[in-house]
Every structure is written in C-alpha cells, then in structure tokens.
Amino acid sequence: MTNAANLLRTKVGSLAQEYRLNIISNNVANANTPGFKRDVPVFEGFIVKATKTHFEQGPIEFTGNKLDLALQGPGFFQIETENGVRYTRNGTFTVNSAGQIVNLDGQVVVGSGRIPEETVDLVVNEDGTIMADGTDVGRLEIVEFEDTSVLKKEGYNNFATKNPDVRGAEPEKTTVSQGCVEKPNFNVVEEMVNMIDTIRTFESFQKVILSFEEADQRSINEVGRLI
User: Where does residue 126 rank: exposed (0-12), middle (13-18), buried (19+ CB within 10 A)?
Assistant: First the structure.
C-alpha cells in the first residue's frame, strides 16, 4: 500500500474517531435527561457506517412529583408538535392553563384530556388512565413499536418515524409509574472511559498523519536540493 493510501486511510480513521467522540459527548451531556437513549457509532473497518440508538430500559427513579411519569417496558408517550405526533420516553410533565398535560416545551401529551383547575388528587394509573379527584378525565395514548429501527431521533429527546405512514401499536408490555422518571440507559463512568479511549485513539491517528506529512515534506526538500 502506498504512503498516499496509508495517509488517506489514517485520515478516515481520524474522522471516524472524531465522530465517535461527538456521539459520546452528546450521551454524557444528557446524563440527567429523563428517558434519554444512548447512541453508539456502527463501524465497518475504519469507517462509521451509521449511528444506532439503544432502546434498553433505563433505571427508574422515584421523585414523588405526581406529574413525573416513567414508562416500564418498550412503549412511548405521544407528543403533539407542530411537525406532527412525536414519541418520547421523557415523562417530566406539567399542566398548562387549559388543564392539558404537557412536556417542558409546552407540547401536549396525546390523551391527556382536561384536568380541572381545582383538582386536589391527581392519579395516573398503570394503563395511563388519568383520574382527577376520582373522575376519569383522560387516558394517555401510549404506543409500542415492534421494530424500533423505524424510529429516528429528532431533537434531544423526541423520536419520529422514518416513514410518516408508520404508526405505533397498542401497548402490551408497557406500564406507567407515577411519581417517577426513567433515567438515561447508560453508565456515565463507562461513557467517560469510552471518551478517554476515543481521545487517545484520535491523538494516535493525528500523530501518524503528522509523521506522513513530515515525511512528504522531507521528500519534497530532498528533491528540491537534487535539482
């Protein structure tokens, strides 16, 4: 293999490590984002071919806030956005002035109904049914996807379907836990170790690239002297 080919391969490897570092950095930055799902790069040799999201269940943390809802199982909350319905695992909700359950961006959770302003006791059952002082006022429309590869990330915590005609199915394995949030599904310490390893690998590639460039410069100088 020629020096030029080796240099190209090394530069491609360096770019792949830089891409991997960006993914890991984004994971770490979302260490406190409820329902966040970890991304990993998919390599083919030195080249990153894709980014894959891992949808495994994250640990459940009790908060005591009645509008904190965690999903146990593979389901998703549905959120009404200006671009259509989106899906999320982030159940950190509040109630807007119209009595609707909304996320922190003010987007309405599908199926939230209307919660009377004077409500004292708000209960969200495992099936998503919302009870306001004992009265049924709505039912969260949770959905499941048999194949999560149909989903793509949109923003830091929402998902959209790659094909807009694809819709989720009625939940069979998902329940709602009130007063809880789902933590991100990765270990921060492990991600930091991955980050350090990536930085070191990236630096190694940079040193090799520098050595190739220095060798090329020496060759140019020697040719110049011969002339």
Answer: exposed
Task: Give the whole-angstrom CA distance, residue 41 versus residue 53.
Answer: 9
- pLDDT tens across 118-143, in order? 999 999 999 999 999 999 999 999 99
The Cα–Cα gap between 194 and 64 comes to 34
Rounded to whole angstroms, the Cα distance separating 128 from 76 reads 12
Residues 6 or more apart in contact with residue 100 via CB below 8 angstroms:
108, 109, 112, 113, 114, 115
Domain boundaries, the chain: 3-54+187-226, 60-182
Does residue 213 contact residue 105 with C-beta atoms inside 8 Å? no
Q: Which DSSP category does 33 fall into?
A: S
DSSP lists the bridge partners of residue 109 as: 79
Can you give the length of the chain in residues? 227
C-alpha span between 75 and 176 (Å, rounded):
10
pLDDT digits (tens, 9 = 90+) for 4-33: 677 677 788 888 899 999 999 999 999 999
CA 31 to chain centre: 11
Lowest mean pLDDT among 35-49, 96-110, 123-137, 212-226: 212-226
DSSP classification of residue 11: H
